[in-house]
Design goal:
The protein is an all-alpha fold. The protein contains twelve helices and two strands, in the order H-H-H-H-H-H-E-E-H-H-H-H-H-H. The protein is elongated and about 75 Å long.
Amino acid sequence: FFFARRGRRALLSLHPLAFLASPSSAAPPLAHMGCCADLFRCSSLSLLLISALFYTLLGAGIVTLGVLALTLPWAKIIVPDWYAGVTIGVGALILFVALFGYLAFCRKKNKCSISIYMLFCLLLCCTTVASTVVLFRYSDALHLAKESKFVNVTDWQREASESLKEGVEEIWEECGASVYNSDSVTYTDEFQVDADTPPYELRCTNSDFDDVAESINDQCLEAAFNDENFDEDNTDFLECYTSSSWWAPEARSSTLGKLNTPKGVFCACYEEFADFVDAYFFVGKWVSFGFAVFFGLTFLGCCYLCCCSKPAAPARTSQQEYAQQPYAQHGQQPPPQQKGATILRP
């Protein structure tokens, strides 16, 4: 009987389709699935750790900025105390969430930490997607407003122009700015100068803004209204200054008088102001897009770890491997072993 079974098994092994019944034929797909699962798990854990480190640096940086806004004299002028306090609170919240990221990475079976971290990543992903859309819209609107010379701006162009207006007015006030002509004469309400003799120069009474004044002078103000293209510069300047669709002009008769207003300086240098802000928009919108992709991938990785990933099976001992060898040779499943039972080979 023993030799008959051996002979029949030998004949079956010679059949052309015998490989389909072989237990080893199913091993490669399972091996590939195991490799993919390990790859997904490793990638998800890597994203989890990198995002936690990023949140730590981001939270620490935000807290530092809030503390500096409360302590530096020039920052206290620009940034309100409540805004600095909110900034510190946001930074502390991000550090607290980063702690859950570390807990989720170190204690991979703890679904609670992964779930909380996953929800925070989803919130950040939605926030960065919304900010990316807004930054792209603002950048396009600012470009269109510059092409129209900031005349009759509406909708998104008006919103982008309003942000420029607020920045120019704040700098003008904090700088204590005045514009002088080539004779070092400026415009005042008591002494109105009608003699427009370019080039013009912006000066600040606050020495902290001397670099800002020098940049404005070098970039545009000293070159504005020069002899070569005076008519074109003056026409564009007047068209921008007299437009009241988004910024009401002050009644000034002379060019020097108009330049001694925040809108006058803006209209003389609107291209440079728009290009300066648009450069930050360009960087910000693509950085925001990259963060949105990163937070989205981190959220998907947390979903995989929380819902799909299974903990790795414990490694088999040499005794278990030895006991299962005869069953594997005959394509059979070994019987369940009882705890403490003696393992005997059949």
